[in-house]
Amino acid sequence: AHPQYSFDYAVHDPHTGDVKNQWESRDGDVVKGSYSLVESDGTVRTVDYTADKHNGFNAVVKKSGHAIHPEQSSYHGHGLY
């Protein structure tokens, strides 16, 4: 039998901040795919991958966008003891 499939999905939940997607396809012994997700700092991580019996699993990771860091507190008062 010659294995063959393809799928994709996406999630975009503004309440939890869960934003991601993936696709993958297989044709015989060759699998190709990609997934991406929004990291907690606001950047997007994308992983493109391939796998086959000659080269094994190979992935290329890319990060895009600018990190958003929470503002630091400007309180410089004295604590209570």
What does this structure look like?
The protein is an all-beta fold and 81 residues long. The protein has a single domain, classed as Nuclear Transport Factor 2, Chain: A. Helix content is 0%, strand content 58%. It is built from no helices and 5 strands. The protein has strands at residues 4-13, 18-27, 30-38, 44-52, 56-64. A hairpin with a 5-residue loop joins strand 3 (30-38) and strand 4. The radius of gyration is 20 Å and the shape is elongated.
CATH architecture annotation = Roll
Helix content: under 10%
Low-confidence stretches: none
Mean pLDDT: 90
The strands making up the biggest β-sheet line up spatially as 1-2-3-4-5
Give the overall silhouette.
Answer: elongated
Secondary structure topology:
Blueprint: E1 4-13, E2 18-27, E3 30-38, E4 44-52, E5 56-64
Antiparallel strand pairs: 1-2, 2-3, 3-4, 4-5
Describe this protein with a few key phrases.
81 residues, Nuclear Transport Factor 2, Chain: A, mainly beta, five-stranded antiparallel beta sheet
